[in-house]
Write a structure and sequence with these properties.
The protein is an all-alpha fold. The chain is built from 4 helices and no strands. Helix 1 packs antiparallel against helix 2. Among the domains are: 1-77; 140-194.
C-alpha cells in the first residue's frame, strides 16, 4: 500500500490519465477527419483509458484532509510529528505555531458563539405570531392613504389662503383709494357749504 500512496505513483497515475485522454481526443479528431492514423490513435487512447478506469476502480479512494495546514511538514510521507496534545517542541511543532493554532481556535469559538446567538434570534422570530400582520398592514395602508388625502387637501387650502390674502390686499388698496376720494368729496362739500 505504501507504493500506491507514494508521490511517484500519484504523478505516474496523473500523467497516464492526462496522456491517455489527450491520445483519445487526438484520435477522435483524426477519425472525424478520416485520417489514416485516426483509428489506431483512438484505439490506443481508449485502451489506455480503459486500463486507467480499471486501475481507479481497484484502488481505494484517497481521503482529502488538509492537515498540513495545522501540522507543517505533514506533506512529507515519513515525517514524525507529535499530536497537538503532546504540546511544545516534541514533534517539530514550534511554540509560535501552537499559539497561532490557539488563536485560530479562539476565533472559531467566537464565530460559533455569534452563530449561536443569531440562531437564537431566528428561533425567537420563528415563534412570533404573524397571523394578524395582514390586517395591520391593511390598516396602515388605509392610514397612509388618508394622510395623503389630508396633505393634498391642506395643500389646496394653502392655495386658497394665498388667493384670499391677495384679494384682501387688493380690497384694502381699493378701500384706501376710495377713502381718499370720499375725503376729497367731503372736503369739497364743506367748502361749498361755508
Amino acid at each position: 500500500m505504501s507504493f500506491i500512496k507514494s508521490k511517484g505513483f500519484k504523478y505516474f497515475k496523473n500523467f497516464t490519465i492526462g496522456v491517455g485522454a489527450a491520445v483519445v481526443m487526438v484520435g477522435a479528431l483524426g477519425k472525424i477527419n478520416s485520417a489514416p492514423w485516426g483509428g489506431p490513435a483512438i484505439t490506443a487512447g481508449l485502451l489506455v483509458e480503459a486500463f486507467l478506469f480499471f486501475m481507479l476502480g481497484i484502488l481505494p479512494p484517497e481521503k482529502d484532509y488538509y492537515w498540513e495546514k495545522l501540522y507543517p511538514g505533514l506533506d512529507s510521507y515519513n515525517t514524525n510529528i507529535a499530536p497537538l496534545t503532546a504540546g511544545g517542541q516534541a514533534g517539530g511543532m514550534r511554540p509560535l505555531d501552537a499559539a497561532a493554532v490557539e488563536g485560530n481556535l479562539g476565533g472559531m469559538l467566537t464565530e460559533l458563539q455569534d452563530m449561536s446567538k443569531s440562531l437564537g434570534s431566528l428561533k425567537a422570530l420563528q415563534e412570533v405570531d404573524f397571523s394578524q400582520t395582514k390586517d395591520q398592514l391593511s390598516s396602515m395602508n388605509n392610514f397612509y392613504a388618508r394622510m395623503n388625502e389630508a396633505a393634498a387637501s391642506l395643500n389646496e387650502t394653502l392655495e386658497d389662503t394665498k388667493i384670499y390674502k391677495e384679494q384682501i390686499g387688493s380690497l384694502n388698496r381699493n378701500l384706501t383709494s376710495l377713502n381718499g376720494v370720499y375725503g376729497n368729496v367731503l372736503g369739497a362739500f364743506k367748502k361749498g357749504v361755508e
